[in-house]
Amino acid sequence: MFMRRRSLGLGVVLMVAGFGLASAGALAGDNMMDQMVRKYCLKAVNDEVKASGKPAPEGMQDFTCDCVVQQMKKRQSIDVAKTTCKNQAATKYHL
What we know:
Blueprint: H1 2-52, H2 60-73, H3 78-92
Helix pairs in contact: 1-2, 2-3
């Protein structure tokens, strides 16, 4: 019976360790997704700023794209994230 408990304990430890590795993998995936969302967001914001012919306020691109990443993490659609963050940036930077 002692051997059985020991192997059960080892199984639980391995299961918990496996869960930890799976969680770490998910975090790495989230980070890659964040980077992709941020990259496309920065391009879109820079294109819009360039089209306006006016200089962007300092920090506006980072603020806007950080917002988009956070909205996407909340599982908002890209359209909702874009609209929400554009409105927040306009308010913050008096645009």
